[in-house]
Design brief:
7-stranded mixed beta sheet; 410 residues; 26% strand; alpha/beta
Length: 410
């Protein structure tokens, strides 16, 4: 009996995680990735709540723990880099600005990719780099695919796991609704210096601007320059910039910022991993159409400020694969997937009141109020305040148990 086949578009987190679980249930999986090779870059991401339980069931929690960044907590800084408030890591699956499992995107992706390449000693997922899906024809019994390279293939299912701007989603669903949340972020890796610490350091100045520096385990430092977009956030879509235009914009917009902003700006020309985005949330009315299904940010991007992006990808991959294993008909599996994941996603997309503006004040008076609140929250006098602010809804799902289906697949 031939194994069912799935083509997955996107080799970041959601795609390889889904391939890993589908392999366990006897599927034959192929992942296509438009990048020419494995992308090792990326910023710090955290794994919380239900996603931690998924890692345990996958047998990958210790591998992830061994690859963590060593970040010990979050410090908010004031004038001259003085510490305003700090929130150390808590031994918790859910709480804190810094989670107990902090890992770089590229390191987590590598763990899932390597784990998916072999199943019980046999070859597992095939990874196709430097290509993408150009055409799809859902015949009802299969999906015929034409790749950009000209290659062709036929699969039982196609999965779009290629991010907020998913080209695969556009081919089938058209333009998804992406709600802007009024913030822009630029990410890059810079050389480590003696001033760096194992803390995530967060420095604000007025006009909604912030500089953050975070440790990694590769001898470098991960930097982010962020700014709030005032007025109509959707207007940012008309101001898309090339990388060189973005560098010039940052030099102008952050020219008068203190602390270590100058160091980050000086590193722009030598950084080869600059990535910038206008933050938004994907609100897709349906995640499935025929034999095509969305997962990860392509389905429900909650934005980096939610603290739930990676956790949603890991849990979504687990549930989608499990439902496909539990049902003969993919339509029943897709219905179960949406039923289980929709409430979890909708909760994650409900950002705390005032986010992101509350953590990125426009005025000096607002910044003073924000820092005063952080001092109180970190003092222990009202420690629950900090807990609520930094506690994403990472446990608000009852994970089904699909373990018995793995034995059946073997």
């Amino acid at each position: 009996m031939s194994r069912p086949t799935a083509l997955i578009s996107g080799a970041s987190i959601a795609g390889p995680a889904l391939a890993f679980w589908l392999n366990r249930y006897g599927w034959q999986t192929t992942v296509v990735e438009r990048a020419p090779e494995f992308r090792s870059g990326g910023q710090n991401i955290d794994i919380r709540g239900a996603a931690r339980e998924v890692l345990r069931r996958a047998g990958l929690e210790e591998a992830v723990r061994a690859g963590t960044t060593g970040e010990v907590g979050t410090r908010f800084l004031g004038k001259g880099g003085a510490v305003v408030a700090e929130f150390p890591v808590k031994a918790s699956d859910t709480e804190g600005a810094t989670a107990e499992l902090e890992i770089l995107r590229g390191d987590l992706s590598r763990i899932f990719i390597e784990a998916s390449k072999s199943v019980d000693g046999e070859p597992g997922t095939t990874y196709l780099y430097g290509d993408r899906i150009a055409e799809l024809d859902d015949t009802g019994s299969a999906v015929d695919v034409v790749f950009e390279s000209g290659a062709r293939g036929s699969f039982d299912l196609v999965v779009a796991a290629d991010g907020i701007g998913s080209s695969t989603r556009s081919l089938v669903f058209g333009d998804a609704v992406v709600d802007p949340i009024g913030m822009e972020m630029t990410y890059l890796t810079i050389p480590r210096t003696d001033s760096d610490t194992p803390w995530w350091r967060w420095y604000n100045e007025p006009d909604g601007r912030a500089v953050t520096l975070r440790p990694d385990r590769h001898g470098t430092t991960r930097a982010v320059l962020s700014s709030v977009i005032y007025g109509d956030p959707s207007s940012a879509r008309d101001k898309r910039r090339t990388t060189e235009q973005q560098k010039q914009h940052l030099r102008e917009h952050f020219a008068d910022i203190g602390w270590e902003a100058r160091r980050v700006l000086d590193a722009l020309d030598d950084a080869d991993d600059i990535y910038f985005e206008t933050l938004g949330q994907v609100k897709a009315p349906s995640w499935t159409r025929g034999r095509v299904v969305l997962t990860g940010d392509a389905a429900w991007c909650a934005s980096p400020v939610s603290g739930m992006g990676t956790s949603l990808s890991i849990v979504g991959a687990y549930v989608l694969a499990g439902e496909l294993a539990a049902h003969v008909d993919h339509r029943d599996a897709f219905a179960g997937y949406e039923r289980i994941m929709r409430p979890y996603v909708e909760q994650a997309q409900k950002l705390p009141p005032g986010v992101p503006q509350i953590a990125n004040p426009r005025t000096r008076a607002g910044l003073a109020v924000f820092r005063a609140g952080l001092r109180v929250a970190s003092s222990g006098v009202i420690s629950a305040l900090g807990g609520r602010f930094f506690r994403p809804p990472s446990d608000k799902i009852e994970l089904p148990d699909y373990a018995h289906l793995e034995a059946r697949a073997r």
